[in-house]
Amino acid sequence: MFPGFDPVAFHVGPLPVRWYALAYMVSFIIALPIARRLNRLAPEVATSEQVDDFLFYAILGVLLGGRLGYVLFYRPLDYLAHPVDIIKTWDGGMSFHGGALGVILALAFFSWKNRLSFLAFADRIVPVVPIGLALGRCANFVNGELWGRPASPDLPWAMVFPTGGPVARHPSELYEALTEGVLLLCVMLFAASRPRLRGHFGFLSGLFLFGYACARSFCEFFREPDANIGFLAGGVTMGQILCIPMALAGIGLMTYAFRRPRQETAHV
Which of 4, 115, 177, 206 lies at a 20 to 30 A Cα distance from 147? Predict the structure, then answer.
């Protein structure tokens, strides 16, 4: 049986603070010093102050992009009929693919504003993104949401979720936390530690896009698709469809990065 977690971590007076919100906050707190350290590696990309300043843009990109992505990718007709519900973020509904687009736009604008190399700066930011993915999926698990497809009752970690009916299911949130989060974080930090890879601007960004697309597509085989969409043609899910352009973009970026000479400076 699913543990009886309370989605509210604690209260500040009358205001509830949910685990999902804490996951976002803790992610940024952990990721910021790591991003600072990555930016100091040769070739130096940005100052620590610029990394700190980007935090605000990153938060806006995640929140606005994640919410609008969910509205457009998963429930466009529902929100078209009830547009006021778009701002009701407390009812849930965030999309990683939308959040990724939001952060990409934030990176592009911030790099242009500060005269930084977009690809070089992005390469030093994306390796820490899996921290947020891991903690976010753990928060999904605590909330008892985004559970998996039916599993064999003999599977030791199969679980009956409160809103998933009486059948045992895969705890797919934890699968995603381990693959999109922990595993991808290890891959990204290892790649970022290699001077040869860092000098090919765009490679780390492409590696992240491709790595996430592979991990998410794999986990979608265990995750129950959204009830309002279900399975698409051929038994694929919306999550897998959205990963196709990410994977292609990742391959394209990595190819582009290695076709260009290794860079010694990261400034425009």
Answer: 206
Q: Please say whether the beta carbons of 201 and 257 come within 8 A.
A: yes
pLDDT top residue among 261 and 193 = 193
Which residues, 6 or more positions from 59, have their beta carbon under 8 angstroms from its beta carbon? 28
Give the dihedral of Cα atoms 108, 110, 113, 117; nearest 10 deg. -60
Taken as a whole, the chain contains a residue count of: 268
Q: Name which residue leads in pLDDT, 218 or 71.
A: 218
Q: Is 75 part of any known ligand binding site?
A: no
Contact status, residue 188 vs residue 204, Cβ threshold 8 Å: yes
Consecutive H or E run containing 253: helix 238-259
Reported as a single tens digit per residue, the pLDDT across 138-159 is 999 999 988 999 999 899 999 9
- CA 255 to chain centroid: 23
